[in-house]
Amino acid sequence: MKKPWAGRFKEKTAGSVEAFTESISFDWRLWPYDIQGSIAHARMLARQGIISGDDADKIITGLQEIASEIEAGKFRFRQDLEDIHMNIEAALIKKIGPSGGKLHTARSRNDQVALDLRLYLRAEVEGFIKTIKKLQRVFLRLAQRHADTIMPGYTHLQRAQPVTLGHHLLAYVEMFQRDRERLQDALKRINTLPLGACALAGTTLPVDRAYVARLLRFKRIADNSMDAVSDRDFALEFLSIGSILMLHLSRMAEELVLWSTEEFSFIELPDAFTTGSSIMPQKKNPDVAELIRGKTGRVYGALLGLLTTMKALPLAYNRDMQEDKLPVFDTVDTLNRVLTILTEMLPKVKFNKKRMQETAAGGYSLATDLAEYLVEKGLPFRDAHEVTGRIVRHAIERDSELHELTLDEFKGFSPLIGADIFKLLTIEKAVKRRKSRGGTSPDEVRRQIDRLRKSL
User: So what's the pLDDT on residue 277?
Assistant: First the structure.
């Protein structure tokens, strides 16, 4: 088949150029959206009297047949036809004759590819919103089961205060909630119709872009034809949201790695989701969590790569923008794989409640409770903080925990401390008393779970 621009050129395109410029090796996956957009475009052309109804019927039937061939694995994608658009158009012309050549009326590959990518991303983003919901529900079930399970809370990876495991898990549910909201909001900008912008200047033909928007369920129409074909900020926004989502998943993966070590022993990962060593028989490696951590850099790289591609492009379309699809495709695939395997693995993780509780009780984690006790007795917080710090130093020097000190020892630091202090110096009491909104008490955790379930 001749190149669509063959009339202007004397020489054939070099084979090396065809190999260098082709995108069919990866943009073939846009075929459902290319056909969907082409069918809508053909219907509009016929409705506007730009092509005949008979031609439109032939085009639509031909496109549907091509879709069936691709689904059945019978369609041969050709590198010399460069991309998915030309592969489908060439097959259509071969199948139905000259009528197929009328499909490209009033459009360019510039607005066509922007349309395909938007349709593809819209479908994927809608899928991610559902997948994240599934993952959130897994966390909520675990949080409900462990609303009373006490564990150490950390800052600077140092033991800080006792919290409940349910509370800890809900922190990730909140992160995923914002990720989901960001994706939902991004749909507003993804869901914008570029078709009809043509190469960059629109068309002299009487197209009806609003009709195409209705057929393809677009809420908006790109109002500037140059902007419609020359920007990929909607793809960058998706990659940015994907990067933030991977950041959250990576932080969680890091905790799974840490908690599964012998030093922590907070969890045991399921055998089916770990691997062993080729030389050390005793090893059980958290490869899934480590790979989630590793794949985060891959998604960040996709974002940075497309930002760099777009940063200095003059208006309007430039061939550099062909590089937009690989990072988007790779990010979609990575996110899908990570979210799917996590949703499958997490319910099978075993939590060592005894080890968590024992660890939470150490490290003077109730020092803040002691300081707040002194505040309730009328001591300014800064003074209470200093007194408590001296008590902790004394306990360290004696190699004792706070609850092991005598009342006389406590009173040696502040006469405000009475025998009632011993009722407070338990991790169970410390957790239950933290009833402030968003706090770690089991009752508050259950309230948070109910709120989040309703939002899902």
Answer: 86
